[in-house]
Write a structure and sequence with these properties.
The complex is a heterodimer of chains A (145) and B (824). Chain A is α/β, with parallel strands linked by helices and 145 residues long. In chain A, 34% of the residues lie in helices and 29% in strands. Chain A has a 5-stranded mixed β-barrel with strand order 2-3-4-6-5. In chain A, β1 (27-30), α2 and β2 form a beta-alpha-beta unit. Chain A is elongated and about 70 Å long. The termini of chain B are far apart. Chain B is flat, with a radius of gyration of 32 Å. In chain B, β7 (589-598) and β8 (604-615) form a beta hairpin. Chain B has 21 helices and 24 strands. Chain B is of the alpha+beta class. The chains are: A alpha/beta (145), B alpha+beta (824).
Chain lengths: 145, 824
């Protein structure tokens, strides 16, 4: 066997070993309910901001303390605590990805990814919604006169 | 119905050219194919003439599409969906071009444009390679043209035209019932994404796309080599193109990093975001391919590896387009490109299959005829270690792309994997070692000769650079105080190892230019690139491991008897709130939020922050500077929200970055109240308009009797309870610190009662408690502030590396021209 082949084999073995250790770091996407059953395990949860409940954030008191409620598509609900500033355009978000772990009934969130409609400008449904709104508001203004 | 005020002709012209570009590139592909296939020279020549005409027509069409779309955006013809979606009337002229790259169609147009430009250079220079190479380029152009054609092919819609009208796209919207809709309803566009309104976003996409487009040329040469059965002849003319790719793609990627650094709120330049990874992986494979091409040009080894790496690089460009443009990455990226739905998904898959199939089929058809050298490379040869380096590049690219593809893999396998708690560390811990080993390889391999190297020669040349690098990196590590221990000693050791590798790379490759090349800069392209790589590595390591969070919320001072409610060591709190006009300590600075302002015709608010650093021994102001972060105000369902742009202060050796994370809109705020002084001790009670305040405890501590005081010399902490008339109770902990004879104050508030507390003076166990009853809501901002040291080393390294690539390319072009005129 050539030396180069030995090196290639070593490299491939190293790559497999690295990928294998990596697998242990991998986590999963979960619903709020399944996250609740995996207490203390780091997971990703795709959810929505529950806009019927208040978002608690008082930067003067503590700029690193955000509390809100999240609901997911299966109807699961949880209180979420995020020890950082409120993400920008948070209330505009359509969908949020929460990375963290469930501690008791509270989801301790380490990172939040937002999906905002402003980023979804190419989405035809958003476009249509906006168009309808512009038509409706302008029509309403016209009626006033 | 006849609509008023529409400009339909220009869109029809644009669409005509979109179709023409499709047809012309199809004709060019077929004619170049025939020209490459037919054996009779005169026939081949006439096909080539026809193909050239078609290709030039194609170039003209692409330019015409650009011009028409530009006019539509420039003239605010909002009846066109593209203008409506990506621009508005208030958009600054200089960002008009950015509107192109915001949309899917515009990015494909840009890509196609660069193929045209590069194609013209190929026609000028490729000679006998022109026909087969241009056939591949034209084929790529056929595919790109379909993305913006927007035509129906039987029942399948091919691509989306940038010239579609709003009213045709949304026929059901009621506004189109009115013939005057353009005057009444659709009077302005949606505007450009705020993040793209940045000068980096005007120049970064064109450079990056030039890099992507340039990967096609070496690909086409490799295919042409297989096709024309000139298995090793393609390497020489393709090499300058591959070097061009390596340089420009590298530059484009790093410009994206600079954009992230300057304009985004990642808090850094690289976050291992899927979009960043997807652009980096083709570059890694291209660099692997450049090295195997060099080996095969000089020794004949590694030819098969070149046939693997070079086509793979372009395929990875297509694959990264697929990942980032079709929405398969879904929720993992902060960049969110929506998918064009299933049509683009399959469209790109077909293109990937075509461009993977062609080299694969040709390769296996010719597998036996491709020459290779039986004799194995010597361990003391340059080619052996260069190949090891290429292999490392390839494996690291595999690691990155597999992890980046997780969402797509989930989609295929129905699994639900995701990267763990610390995404960046997952990449960093592997890549830091990969980069270090590659650095070492460049250092030792430069001094090796092709085929075989005398041991004594090599040892003699490399000894001094090695020793000096060892000393320099130890000094840097020791005096630079690099002690990044967040991930333990193993990772810190890896950082120091990589730092040595970076410095070694710079010194060894730099020394090579003088000791071996005798200062002949023209021949030093490779060494210069390697020096740039070493500088980048050192810059990345130093700036990242010594990145400092200035806005660390320093309430976590351990004092016995007082429970700390906020700070935790393992999870530093990153935001600090500044109340208007109240100086607040932050790292070695005292920062004051002095005000904010808006400018006409600008949707942004600018904040004025005063940074002051005092010389503690002489008690005088050492340095004062202002930073002006700003933020767009975005109105939407949940009220007005912020989209922040950092403000920065640049120095040669460090940058200070500040960005606003939250702001209370201060409209109608008039706060005229002042602090009322009250000398109190433990157990005292003070009244205010809506109740009373008890002083529960006053704790004093200083360094002499408390060793747990890491941050300050002495401290006075108070615990207050506010008893409101309605029975509610609140707590507050204003405090007073002394550090190096400098007093600083931590203000605390009870927002519900509009109370602000601070300790103004201290005397033994008594404190002067300042109480302010604000008659208005407070003006404040919340911010994050970072300091990056030596980030300029990274940018300098980038420029040096790119210069090295381009210098190598220039020399090889010259050499190719010279060898051709010699052979004639």
């Amino acid at each position: 066997m050539k030396k180069i082949h030995i090196i290639m084999l070593v490299a491939i073995a190293a790559a497999i070993a690295v990928l294998f250790t990596m697998m242990q770091d991998l986590t999963t996407y979960d619903s709020i309910e399944s996250a609740r059953s995996k207490q203390g395990k780091f997971v990703h949860v795709i959810a929505k901001l529950d806009k019927t409940k208040p978002v608690e954030y008082d930067p003067i008191k503590d700029p690193n303390h955000l509390v809100f409620y999240a609901v997911d598509s299966l109807g699961g609900q949880a209180k979420v605590v995020y020890r950082n500033s409120k993400p920008q355009e948070f209330e505009h978000s359509e969908r949020i990805v929460l990375k963290g772990k469930m501690q008791g009934d509270v989801f301790e969130c380490k990172e939040i990814l937002l999906k905002c409609p402003s980023k979804y400008k190419d989405d035809p449904n958003q476009q249509l919604k906006k168009l309808d709104e512009s038509g409706a508001t302008t029509a309403a203004e016209e009626k006033k006169y | 119905m006849r609509y008023e005020g529409e400009h339909l002709l220009i869109g029809q012209i644009g669409h005509f050219f979109a179709i023409l570009s499709f047809v012309a590139s199809l004709v060019a592909t077929l004619a170049y194919f025939k020209s490459a296939q037919v054996k009779i020279e005169s026939e081949s020549l006439s096909w080539k003439k026809m193909a050239r005409t078609a290709f030039i027509l194609e170039v003209f069409s692409v330019l015409a599409i650009f011009a028409t779309l530009y006019l539509i955006i420039y003239n605010h013809y909002f009846e066109y969906k593209y203008a409506h979606q990506h621009s508005n009337r208030s958009l600054d002229m200089k960002y008009l071009l950015s509107c192109f790259w915001e949309g899917q169609e515009g990015s494909f147009m840009l890509w196609s444009f660069w193929h045209c430009v590069l194609g013209l250079f190929v026609i000028r220079s490729a000679r006998e390679w022109e026909a087969p190479v241009m056939a591949m380029i034209s084929l790529a152009q056929v595919f790109l043209a379909t993305y913006i054609a927007g035509i129906y092919f039987f029942d399948v819609k091919l691509g989306t035209s940038p010239f579609v009208l709003m009213r045709n796209e949304f026929p059901d919207a009621p506004v189109f019932g009115d013939p005057q809709y353009l005057f009444k309803y659709i009077t302005d566009g949606n505007g450009l994404n705020k993040l793209l309104q940045n000068y980096w976003m005007v120049i970064h996409p064109p450079v990056l796309f030039l890099g992507f487009a340039s990967c096609l040329i070496p690909f086409s040469f490799a295919v042409a080599g297989l096709w024309k059965k000139d298995y090793s002849g393609w390497v020489k003319p393709a090499l300058p193109w591959a070097l061009f790719s390596g340089g420009i793609l590298g530059l484009g990627i790093m410009m994206g990093a600079a954009w992230a650094y300057e304009s985004l709120t990642f808090g850094g330049y690289w976050a291992w975001d899927p979009v960043e990874n997807a652009s980096m992986v083709p570059w890694l494979v291209m660099v692997a391919g450049i090295h195997t091409m060099l080996i095969s040009k000089h020794t004949g080894h590694s030819l098969k590896a070149s046939f693997f790496f070079i086509p793979l690089s372009f395929l990875l460009v297509l694959y990264s387009t697929f990942l980032t443009r079709t929405g398969v990455l879904g929720d993992t990226s902060v960049h969110s490109f929506t998918g064009e739905g299933n049509s683009l998904y399959w469209h790109l898959i077909v293109m990937m299959l075509a461009f993977a199939g062609i080299p694969l089929v040709l390769y296996f058809k010719n597998n036996k005829a491709i020459p290779f050298i039986k004799k194995e490379e010597s361990m003391s040869s340059r080619e052996f270690w260069m190949f090891v380096g290429s292999l490392l590049f390839f494996i690291s690219s595999l690691y990155i792309i597999v992890l980046t593809s997780l969402p797509f893999i989930n989609k295929l396998l129905g699994t639900k994997w995701a990267l763990g708690a610390d995404t960046e560390y997952v990449y960093n811990r592997v890549m830091v070692l990969v980069a270090a080993v590659i650095g070492l390889l460049t250092a030792v391999t430069q001094y090796l000769k092709y085929k075989d190297t005398p041991r004594k020669y090599w040892m003699g040349k490399i000894m001094w650079p090695t020793l000096i690098a060892l000393v320099a990196s130890l000094l840097t590590g020791f005096f630079g105080n690099i002690s990044y221990d967040k991930y333990g000693a193993g990772y810190l050791a890896a950082i120091h190892f990589a730092l040595f590798a970076g410095i070694y790379t710079v010194l060894a490759n730099g020394a090579y230019i003088f000791s071996v090349l005798k200062g002949n800069m023209k021949a030093a392209g490779a060494s210069i690139s390697h020096v740039g790589f070493g500088l980048m590595l050192a810059g990345i390591l130093i700036s990242s491991s010594k990145k400092e969070l200035l806005s660390l919320n320093q309430t976590g001072i351990a004092v016995p008897g007082l429970k700390d409610v906020k700070g935790k060591d393992e999870n530093p709190l990153e935001n600090v709130t500044l109340i208007h006009a109240v100086p607040t300590p932050m790292g070695k600075y005292t920062v004051t939020y002095e005000g904010d302002s808006t400018v006409d015709k600008d949707e942004r608010v600018y904040f004025k922050l005063r940074f002051e650093q005092r010389d503690t021994s002489a008690n005088e102001v050492k340095e004062v500077f202002y930073v002006y972060p700003n933020a767009f105000l975005i109105k939407g369902d949940g009220g007005t929200q912020l989209s922040s742009n950092p403000g920065s202060r640049h120095y040669v050796a460090r940058d200070v970055f500040v960005y606003i994370t939250s702001w209370l809109n201060p409209e109608n705020i008039k706060d005229t109240s002042t602090f009322r002084s009250n000398w109190v001790k433990k157990g005292d009670t003070v009244f205010y308009s809506n109740g009373f305040i008890t002083v529960n405890n006053i704790i004093t501590a200083n360094k002499n009797d408390n060793k747990d005081l890491p941050v300050v010399d002495s401290v006075w902490l108070s615990e207050l309870t506010v008893h409101a008339k309605d029975g509610r109770q609140f707590t507050a902990q204003p405090s007073y610190f002394i550090k190096n004879n400098q007093a600083s104050v931590k203000v605390d508030t009870v927002m519900a009662q509009n109370l602000v507390f601070r300790i103004d003076k201290v005397q033994g166990g008594r404190i002067d408690l300042g109480i302010k009853e604000s008659d208005a809501v407070m003006r404040y901002i919340t911010l994050k502030a970072y300091q990056f040291p030596w980030i300029n080393v990274l940018w300098l390294g980038t420029i040096v590396m790119v210069a090295g690539f381009l210098l190598s390319m220039y020399r090889r072009v010259k050499a190719n021209i010279a060898s051709r005129s010699n052979s004639l």
